[in-house]
């Protein structure tokens, strides 16, 4: 996919029951996790991300992107818009339990600047973070993407934040990939480094 300024209106979150090939994307940062019980790859692909989670017999991929033209149809389970809150959960063969929450928040200029600065500082100490100065509009902050994660022996929690300064919008996802049933008592859909309101 070509480098381009992303279109927020075209942003979708896709769930695939298969791995996706890296040649489909421009990967800016990547992280591989292997616990012995599961493997995961986290890719930061501009103002989007791809998370592939694999355990014996099951592979699930979560893709947030504004480019759908080259995406495969095979293995596509769900395509979710991000302009309103979305909750999604699925279980595969009682082996993989997946929970997803997607939110986007329109902010005032002052709040957006404050959140942008706070998250940029926080992200320097953990996770995967990148500013996209090449997509910045003159006089505005640059877009950024931040992927934070918590790995456990039987579970991977991933928090992503994607900033769209032109629209003053922050898109956030929280995902839980688990080898055991997910207890809602221990998994709030709004926990993470910045809580419900970022």
What's the N-to-C terminus distance? 30 Å
Sequence stretches where pLDDT stays below 50 over 5 or more residues: none
Helical/strand content category: mainly beta
- Mean pLDDT equals 88
Radius of gyration based on Cα positions: 16 Å
Order of helices and strands: EEEEEEEEHEEEE
Number of helices: 1
The amount of helix comes to: under 10%
- Number-wise, the strands total 12
Q: What spatial form do the alpha-carbon principal axes imply?
A: globular
Beta-strand residue fraction? 35-45%
Which strand order spans the largest sheet, edge to edge or round the barrel? 2-3-4-5-1-6
Task: Let me know the largest β-sheet.
Answer: 6 strands, antiparallel
Number of domains: 1
Structural overview:
The chain has a 6-stranded antiparallel beta sheet, with no helix packed on it. The longest helix has 15 residues, at 109-123. Helices cover 8% and strands 45% of the residues. The radius of gyration is 16 Å and the shape is globular. The model has no long low-confidence stretch (mean pLDDT 88). The chain is mostly beta strands. It has one domain.
